[in-house]
Amino acid sequence: MASSNRSRLAVNAWRWGLLIALIALWEAGSRLALIDPFFFSSPSEIVRTAVVKWQSGQLGRDISYTVSSTLLGFVLGTSIGSLAGLLFWFSRRVAQVAEPWLIVLNALPKLALAPVLVIWFGIGFSSKVILAFLMTVVVSAMSAYGGVQTADPALETLLISLGARRRQIFTLLIVPSAMPAIITGLRVNIALAMAGAIVGEFIASDRGLGRMIVYAGTIFDLKLVWVGVVVLSIVSVLMYAAVVLLEKLLMRHWTARKA
Description:
Elements: H1 2-31, H2 37-40, H3 43-56, H4 58-87, H5 92-107, H6 114-121, H7 125-148, H8 153-161, H9 166-184, H10 186-203, H11 209-218, H12 222-258
Helix pairs in contact: 3-12, 4-7, 4-10, 4-11, 5-7, 6-7, 6-10, 7-9, 7-10, 9-12, 10-11, 10-12, 11-12
């Protein structure tokens, strides 16, 4: 245990050390004109610009907009997709018909549909949520259906022989068998939902971090571009870490429940 803790501390020290070293080199390179400060800015200028935008309230509104559309699309896509994948168990024929369609929809470059969705649903909040939803719903359905297929046929036969109804088999065997696959897919879905929401903001939006980056680029305010990129990176990491923590809690709860 002690060796494991030391190893974990060493890894974390290296991670943070490399990040600090990168920021220090970036700042020094900008101040010494080793890199062009106009194109690459500097950490201190990025922080200064971010503070100004935060105090004006613009940065907070943009963060809230992007996070809200991402989370709503993520929750809707994961929930509806997982439910659809689970329900395929009730009809093997429906599942066989739907499976190639799911594969095609999964391979379809959904981000290419962003301009069409913006035209259909406008530049507001709904188009970003729908794009985030489309990025996650098919993946969730395929993950859930893959988990359904891992259910033990022998246990299903045993439950049938004991007089269990289909609804009981579904709740007692199928859902528990698919749950690990559904939970594992959460970290993939949050990244896809974020990508969908940001691309929607790139195409057309009245607010959001994606809109901030595009707007700043059009007026050649590269400091603000870097603010958008850095803040978006931080928000993405925090959301991913939150989903990973949720995944661990759900897996722990599910394992304890099965035990």
